[in-house]
């Protein structure tokens, strides 16, 4: 029996398409409409050209739609000059878009319409020169421009944004013009008594009624009917089209079958009434065929015309919020790890307390006295251990760094025969102990510094986790309300992302490029979310823009700076900084280095740089100066700096004051001037020093005055108050100059810096 080898079945490779079914259907519809528009009797060339310009603006492939335009032109208007006036527009559009792409510039809808006018010139010139039909040539030229503008706007909404449900007012007008052009062209397509208008327009009206709503279907029927009436001169065609779409749309909530039957019944009445006007059985069959196509369309295809956004928005919202919650949980877990590390380092006991005089005396007694040849002369009297008599020597060596024979107790001087060697051993062991104590102290201080740094990182991570845990809404009720209100102001918003609430509200939405800078946009979004927002950034995305909005500050800060260096010095020892560590906060820092000149300038500049970096990293303000102080103590090599920081929250008006060794800060309100003094030493002197931290609430018109000790020492609190009262100004720069002038008049000789801030309502 012969065995046959069974060959395994080869798996058929999955077929890949160059175009998705939806894109293929879109191209097929585009090509079909080009042929329909080109078939119009009088102005088919202008209508087809306008549609071509709109399709290319909507990112349809020029080779496909341009080839269809050439074929349709030759098919319906075959003449010697046809290749010229049909080929030039395709070439012009290719050059036009190629030049914009090379220049990396987007094409606007008005630029697209201008290109359509240029493309219409050859046909208009040939029609005027060769045929002498100047009015028709001019009308064809203008019609090409108008249809180009309308089709560019409407086709972009349909093919690029992918929806016909959210059209701006200008896009709705463009859609109406396109519908009129379609009605005009469809009535021109007639063969054997069959008119394309009766097959296409009622079915298209029902499709729009199903996808968008009955009012939209009725508007389409009216505009398409107007185009049909212009072509045929029979307005009753428009009337029955509107009636058929209205009846069919009214029956749509039942079934599509009932809707099609209602529209067909209307045309049955039309056939009975308008037989004398040329409406025969052929057109009734055409209407029935079009309605049959409407019934054959898949439900998914009709729903897809709406953009299919409802379920997608819910799914995207769920995915985004789940991802944010997972990220928040991870950040919180990492923050807990850093917090545990901070607690462990803070609770770790240093080893310096292990190196005591008792231990030193014990080690010398064991390692030296225990090996001495004459130990029998000492041990019996002390119970075998000389630690007690060596303890005074251990105390002396650890206290003074060195011990002598004079520090020996009488017991040792009276019995020990190797006193000089004992002194040398005690000094050597004492030096080793002192080095160990210093190393342990530095290690303990490093641990405390790392503990505070880890605690600061934990606070930053907790803040990020809290921010990420806030829910985000993609679309949804608020997003739809924003989109609907924007549409009323001719602003088309695509994706709308809403997150947070109150002071943490964030909104991001995609709009057309021409809508991104409209002043009404943030006002509309603010009214919808119930929080005053402002545009914080605009990001280009393709041919559109993404607008990011955040809470609008209630206040802003105006400031002025006045400074002078010490006479005889090249640079001032004072340093100041003004920066925005976040969008809502304004930080003002002033540092006065020890002494004057370049060394003091470097010390103060280093301190200010540290403060800036910590704030940019998001470290809590209460931790910043503590970390800066410890770092300066470890690295400053005997230099120190006073540090004065004021942070203003422009959303709430809160003022945070953080000071170390700085001169008093003055908070001025209507009729009062509060002095905030600091007793903490400058940064870089005591590692255990804690900065002064406090918070004040500011309102419109309040003033904050910061100064270096060169100014404060010359004026004092009363002098500052008197100078501020005499200045009688709300200009912070003028007040800063007046304070510096008053300090100089009072004999200030040190480096002087005055920093004045004034809060004002936006």
From TrEMBL:
Residues 558-759 form the PPM-type phosphatase domain. The chain crosses the membrane at residues 68-95, 107-126, 138-161, 173-201, 207-230, 237-254, 260-279, 286-305. Keywords: Membrane, Transmembrane, Transmembrane helix. PROSITE patterns: PPM_2. Pfam families: SpoIIE (PF07228), SpoIIE_N (PF19732). It comes from the Bacteria. The keyword Membrane applies. PANTHER family: PHOSPHOSERINE PHOSPHATASE RSBX. This is SpoIIE family protein phosphatase. It comes from Candidatus Limadaptatus stercoripullorum.
């Amino acid at each position: 029996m012969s065995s046959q080898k069974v060959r395994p079945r080869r798996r058929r490779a999955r077929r890949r398409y160059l175009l998705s079914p939806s894109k293929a259907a879109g191209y097929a519809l585009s090509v079909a409409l080009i042929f329909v528009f080109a078939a119009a009797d009088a102005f088919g060339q202008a209508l087809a050209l306008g549609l071509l310009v709109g399709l290319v603006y909507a990112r349809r492939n020029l080779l496909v739609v341009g080839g269809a335009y050439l074929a349709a032109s030759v098919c319906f208007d075959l003449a010697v000059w046809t290749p010229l006036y049909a080929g030039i527009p395709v070439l012009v559009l290719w050059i036009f878009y190629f030049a914009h792409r090379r220049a990396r510039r987007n094409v606007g809808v008005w630029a697209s319409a201008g290109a359509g006018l240029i493309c219409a010139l050859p046909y208009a010139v040939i029609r005027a020169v060769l045929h002498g039909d100047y009015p028709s040539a001019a009308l064809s030229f203008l019609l090409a421009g108008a249809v180009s503008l309308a089709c560019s706007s409407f086709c972009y909404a349909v093919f690029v944004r992918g929806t016909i449900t959210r059209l701006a007012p200008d896009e709705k007008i463009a859609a109406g013009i396109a519908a009129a052009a379609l009605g005009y062209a469809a009535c021109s397509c007639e063969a054997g008594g069959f008119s394309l208008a009766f097959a296409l327009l009622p079915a298209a009206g029902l499709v729009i009624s199903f996808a968008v709503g009955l009012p939209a279907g009725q508007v389409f029927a009216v505009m398409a009917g107007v185009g049909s009436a212009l072509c045929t001169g029979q307005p009753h065609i428009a009337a029955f089209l509107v009636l058929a779409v209205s009846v069919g749309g009214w029956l749509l909530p039942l079934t599509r079958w009932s809707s099609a039957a209602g529209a067909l019944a209307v045309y049955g009445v039309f056939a009975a009434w308008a037989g004398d006007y040329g409406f025969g059985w052929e057109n009734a069959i055409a209407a029935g065929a079009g309605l049959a196509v409407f019934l054959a369309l898949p439900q998914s295809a009709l729903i897809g015309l709406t953009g299919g956004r409802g379920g997608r928005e819910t799914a995207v919202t769920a995915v985004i919020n789940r991802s944010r919650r997972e990220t928040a949980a991870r950040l919180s877990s990492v923050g807990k790890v850093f917090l545990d590390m901070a607690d462990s380092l803070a609770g770790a006991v240093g080893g310096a307390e292990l190196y005591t005089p008792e231990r030193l005396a014990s080690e010398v007694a064991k390692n030296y006295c225990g090996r001495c040849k004459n130990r029998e002369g000492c041990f019996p009297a002390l119970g075998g251990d000389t630690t007690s008599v060596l303890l005074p020597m251990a105390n002396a060596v650890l206290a003074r760094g060195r011990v002598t024979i004079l520090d020996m107790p009488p017991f040792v001087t009276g019995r020990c025969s190797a006193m000089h060697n004992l002194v040398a051993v005690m000094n050597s062991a004492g030096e080793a102990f002192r080095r160990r104590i210093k190393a342990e102290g530095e290690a303990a201080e490093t641990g405390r510094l790392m503990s505070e740094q880890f605690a600061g990182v934990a606070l930053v991570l907790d803040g990020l986790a809290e921010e990420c845990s806030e829910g985000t809404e993609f679309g949804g009720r608020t997003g739809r309300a924003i989109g609907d209100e924007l549409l009323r102001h001719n602003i088309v918003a695509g994706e709308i992302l809403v997150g947070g609430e109150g002071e943490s509200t964030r909104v991001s939405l995609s709009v057309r490029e021409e809508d991104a800078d409209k002043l009404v946009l943030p006002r509309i979004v603010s009214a919808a979310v119930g929080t005053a927002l402002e545009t914080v950034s605009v990001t280009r995305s393709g041919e559109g823009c993404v607008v990011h909005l955040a809470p609008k500050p209630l206040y802003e800060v105006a400031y002025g700076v006045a400074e002078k260096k010490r006479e005889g010095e090249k640079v001032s020892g004072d340093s100041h900084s003004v920066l925005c560590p976040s969008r809502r906060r304004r930080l003002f820092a002033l540092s006065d280095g020890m002494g004057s000149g370049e060394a003091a300038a470097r010390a103060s500049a280093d301190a200010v740089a540290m403060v800036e970096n910590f704030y940019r990293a998001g470290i809590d303000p209460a931790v910043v100066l503590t970390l800066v102080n410890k770092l300066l103590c470890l690295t400053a090599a005997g230099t120190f700096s006073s540090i004065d920081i004021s942070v203003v929250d422009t959303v709430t008006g809160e003022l945070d004051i953080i000071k170390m060794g700085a001169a008093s800060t003055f908070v001025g309100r209507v009729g009062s001037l509060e002095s905030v003094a600091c007793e903490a030493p400058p940064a870089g002197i005591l590692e255990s020093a804690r900065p002064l931290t406090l918070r004040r609430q500011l309102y419109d018109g309040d003033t904050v005055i910061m100064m270096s000790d060169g100014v404060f020492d010359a004026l004092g609190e009363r002098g500052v108050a008197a100078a501020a009262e005499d200045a009688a100004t709300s200009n912070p720069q003028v007040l800063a100059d007046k304070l510096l002038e008053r300090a100089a008049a009072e004999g200030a000789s040190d480096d002087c810096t005055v920093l004045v801030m004034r809060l004002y309502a936006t």
